[in-house]
UniProtKB/TrEMBL annotation:
The lineage of its organism: Eukaryota, Viridiplantae, Streptophyta, Embryophyta, Tracheophyta. The chain crosses the membrane at residues 232-255. Residues 1-19 form the signal peptide. Residues 115-136 form the C2H2-type domain. It comes from the Eukaryota. This is C2H2-type domain-containing protein. InterPro entries: Znf_C2H2_type. Keywords: Membrane, Signal, Transmembrane, Transmembrane helix.
């Protein structure tokens, strides 16, 4: 099998490439652990600095999760309808306390995050968060209640953060409270009397977020789909196809060439074979 000699190095190279990518992705948790370790050494000084941050009673992490939910599962539909959310709507970007800081995060590399205000760089996002809390806390406008994390109950942030397992027991009172908050968001952000696109978005919001706030078997949250998940699967699928397609054609080409060569050799051998045959 001559063609096997050609294919073997190619397959070897591909497998090495794949191993390389796996190794790269597996290093990130390790470096994270190192940073955790290094971080614990310097916590005493950090705690002193964090005294300023106690004025803000809003979770940055949960606000970020709420923003991700809005960005993935609501914004695509709002953009599709070309609808302008009122600034009175609590889902409006202006009503996220941390939005400005989050937009000043520069993700330079896997292990490099930069502060957009002073260009200082950090090895992980959480260190940049701490830097914002310590150095740029004066940029937060805390005079109004703009905590996006307060809407987490309605927006299913736990699903985004993967912090709670899906099997936790349902609390009917909490589900009712979240549903009420959710419906009030739909009424405030997409008033039905403001035209067809607002009422379409109102209905979508109820299906996408509110209907799932029930202890009986109801629809799952984000039942209308979102933006990022599909695009990631699409991207991964197309990359895989692009990688496999040339290999497939190469194998087919080499196989056919081998068959052609084989038949030519047979043609050459067969007359010789007849001559040497003793009669
Ligand atoms: Zn800074």
């Amino acid at each position: 099998m001559g063609w096997w000699k050609v294919i073997a190095p190619i397959l070897l190279a591909i497998s090495l490439c794949l191993q390389g990518t796996i190794r790269v992705s597996s290093t990130s948790p390790l470096t994270q652990k190192n940073q955790d370790f290094e971080q614990s050494a310097g916590t005493s000084t950090l705690k002193q600095q964090q005294e300023h941050a106690h004025e803000v009673h809003c979770s940055r992490e949960r606000s970020r999760a709420a923003w991700k939910v809005i960005d993935e599962y609501l914004v695509p539909f709002v953009e599709q309808e070309r609808y302008q959310m009122s600034s009175k709507c609590r889902l409006h970007p202006d009503n996220d306390l941390f939005r400005d800081q989050e937009q000043h995060k520069i993700h330079f590399d896997i292990n490099e995050w930069r502060c957009g205000y002073c260009k200082k760089s950090f090895r992980a996002e959480k260190f940049l968060d701490q830097h914002f809390d310590n150095r740029h806390y004066n940029l937060l406008n805390v005079s109004h209640s703009k905590c996006l994390a307060d809407l987490c109950g309605a927006l299913h942030c736990d699903l985004m953060m993967n912090s709670k397992s899906a099997k936790t027991k349902c609390n009917p009172a909490a589900a009712a409270r979240n549903r009420h908050l959710c419906e009030s968001l739909a009424d405030n952000c997409f008033p039905i009397n403001q035209g067809p696109s607002a009422s379409r978005l109102h209905e979508l919001f109820l299906h996408q977020f509110c209907d799932a706030h029930t202890c009986s078997r109801g629809p799952k949250p984000f039942s209308r789909g979102g933006k990022k998940q599909t695009s990631i699967f699409y991207l991964a699928g197309s990359i895989l196809i692009l990688m496999l397609l040339p290999i497939f054609y190469l194998v087919v080409y080499l196989y056919q060439r081998e068959i052609r060569r084989g038949t030519q050799e047979l043609k050459r051998i067969s007359p010789l074979g007849r001559k040497t045959k003793p009669s």
